[in-house]
Specification:
The chain has 421 residues and is α/β, with parallel strands linked by helices. 42% of the residues lie in helices and 15% in strands. It folds into 2 domains: 3-53 and 300-418, Aspartate Aminotransferase, domain 1 (Alpha-Beta Complex); 59-298, Aspartate Aminotransferase, domain 2. It has 15 helices and 14 strands. The strands form 3 sheets. Strands 4-10-9-8-7-5-6 form a 7-stranded mixed sheet. It binds pyridoxal-5'-phosphate (PLP). The site of pyridoxal-5'-phosphate has 13 residues, from helix 4.
């Protein structure tokens, strides 16, 4: 069979919707300045789906630094991979400042989070080693695992007893193979908003010999007294052997970094394929990220303001009876009951009638029958935005529960259930 023909027959889960979509659910275009209110299909929307926790994306000093750096350096400089011709004092300065901020000896820049962490995983293990990871891990971690030719064991999300069981299995194997064990979790899980139970994981180091890699994409800048992340929040930063964060969330930019002890970061610098064989981060991003980090460190008020909004929306939703799961972070899932068809109709209604734009997540990412609206609060939202949103959610929930968004078939089933048929 022709390869392309085969692919186009079964477009994949998301691709199967491509023929009906008109940039509405997928590839929507939010236009205008990055802010809580942006234009969508010619209409102003209150948006809750931008990873801009601290509001730095459109901060006046950030915009100035980005523009000045682009004017001074262009988008290309420095040319080549970091190891060859892509290094600069600014790259090294950013690495050192990031490492100091998260309490580690040194750091290394990655030119994207996704392939960066995949490559970190790849460079840390060989066939003799075992990886043990949380079942809710982000796709980039899963893809990193796919590169691993040795064994990997998964434990149910934050289930520390099961992690211990997996570590025991891993220990048996590595005793024979002569390999080591890498445990991978997230600092804050991007769907549920739960923190990884870092404290309990690190406590297991008393019993087992393993190294811990933490993806803190959603914790960096949002958690901990200074914003140094979920490890700081749990007073556990020291037990994290390799700390990872992308710049795509609190830093509202592009790129990522890892931080750890001198010897392991130095080892990785010489062994990480995605950085050795790919172009370095361009200077405007490095300078722009230095500015963002400076603001993040020197303006704790940004994080405080983020949490004012987080607390208002999370307690407001709970007060109105909404199920927001067990989030411990700004990530706010709103869990409702309904089909994918209802989810699509409800989101259309939220956008068209109530001017609220947020992400919707349906089966198979969440269990069948569950609809998740995902709210990402930022420091630049207002309390008025919060009350507008909660009031809109209340209205659409009433409609959802009454079967307003259901298909004809679903409506008949609801009616039959009501009548006890
Ligand atoms: C938990 C987590 N890790 C890694 C990434 C990937 O980062 P990047 O967007 O820099 O590729 C993301 C998404 O941005 C994420 O949510």
């Amino acid at each position: 069979m022709d390869l392309f023909e085969k692919l186009l027959k079964d477009r994949g889960h998301l691709g199967s919707h491509s023929h009906v979509d008109d940039n509405y659910y997928m590839f929507p275009k939010l236009e205008g300045e990055i802010a809580p209110r942006m234009m969508f299909k010619g209409k102003e929307m209150l948006t809750w789906s931008l990873n801009n926790y601290l509001g730095l994306a459109n901060h006046i000093e950030v915009r100035k630094a980005d523009a000045q750096a682009a004017a001074n350096w262009g988008l290309g400089y420095p040319m080549g991979a970091r190891m060859m011709t892509g290094n600069s004092d600014h790259h090294e300065q950013l690495e050192q400042e990031l490492a100091t901020f998260v309490g580690k000896e040194t750091g290394m820049l990655l030119n994207f989070g996704y392939q960066g962490i995949m490559s970190v995983i790849d460079a840390l293990v060989d066939r003799k080693d075992v990886i043990v990871y949380d079942a809710e891990a982000h796709a980039c971690i899963i893809d990193g695992l796919r590169l691993h030719i040795g064994k990997r064991f998964v434990y149910p999300h934050n289930d520390i007893d099961n992690l211990e069981t997996q570590l025991r299995r891993a220990e048996r194997l590595t005793r024979e193979s002569g390999g080591g064990i890498l445990v991978i979790t997230e600092g804050v899980f991007g769907m549920s908003g739960n923190m990884g139970d870092l404290k309990s994981i690190i406590r297991l180091k008393d019993k087992f010999n393993f190294r811990l890699l933490v993806d803190d994409a959603h914790g960096f800048g949002t958690m901990g007294a200074t914003g140094a992340g979920a490890g700081e929040e749990q007073n556990s930063q020291e037990g994290i052997d390799i700390y990872f964060s992308t710049f795509a969330k609190s830093m509202a930019s592009i790129g990522a970094f890892i931080a750890g002890s001198f010897n392991i970061i130095d080892h990785l610098k010489y062994n990480i394929r995605s950085q050795i064989f790919a172009k370095t981060l361009p200077m405007p991003l490095v300078i722009g990220n230095l500015k963002r980090l400076e603001l993040l460190r020197s303006n704790p008020g940004l994080k405080d303001q983020l949490w004012v909004i987080v607390n208002a929306i999370q307690s407001g939703l709970k007060d109105k009876g909404f199920n927001i799961g067990s989030t411990q972070s700004p990530v706010t899932p709103v869990l409702l009951n309904g089909t994918t068809y209802e989810a699509m109709n409800m989101v259309r209604d939220l956008r068209n009638e109530y001017s609220i734009f947020c992400s919707v997540i349906a089966y198979p990412v969440v269990p069948k029958g569950v609809i998740m609206l995902r709210i990402i609060p930022t420091a630049v939202h207002t309390l008025e935005d919060v009350s507008q949103t909660i009031s809109a959610f209340e209205k659409v929930k009433i409609k959802l529960d009454a079967g307003f968004y259901a298909s004809q078939g679903e409506k008949a089933a609801i009616l039959a259930k009501k009548e006890g048929l």
